[in-house]
Amino acid sequence: MSNSRALPLLDPDVQPCCPPLNERPLTAEEAVRTAAMFKALGDPVRLRLFSAVASHEGGEACVCDISDVGVSQPTVSHHLKKLKDAGLLASERRGTWVYYRVEPSVLAAMGQLLTSAAR
């Protein structure tokens, strides 16, 4: 059984972070927001954590389920915080554990930014 699922790329309710790259130059504010998202994903550990959350069954994962990425638990927490601060993840505390989920609207906006530019 596969845990992969398609994430929405062109949700009509999504306000993209910025226009497709080939539409017009980014404003300074759009560039800052977009760079923060890509910077957060630019670290291999963060990218693995993001992928672990995105591919986890049900679309969310407890920190206890995704912490096996070759770094200490405090470092995992630091990287998850960076992903959350960049707006890529949302979290919810349930008892002693924190559950993370990917923000689909952000993924959709990033996907629209890149796929429109690739056409």
From TrEMBL:
Question: Does the keyword field hold Oxidoreductase?
Answer: no
Superkingdom per UniProt: Bacteria
Write out the GO MF terms: DNA binding; DNA-binding transcription factor activity
Which SMART domains does the record associate with it? HTH_ARSR
Question: Keywords on this record?
Answer: DNA-binding, Transcription, Transcription regulation
Domain HTH arsR-type, by residue range, is: 26-119
Query: Is Transcription regulation among the key words of this record?
Result: yes
Fetch the PROSITE patterns from UniProt: HTH_ARSR_2
Give the signal peptide, or none: none
> Which NCBIfam families does this chain map to?
HTH_metalloreg
Q: What is this protein called?
A: ArsR family transcriptional regulator
Write down the species: Streptomyces candidus
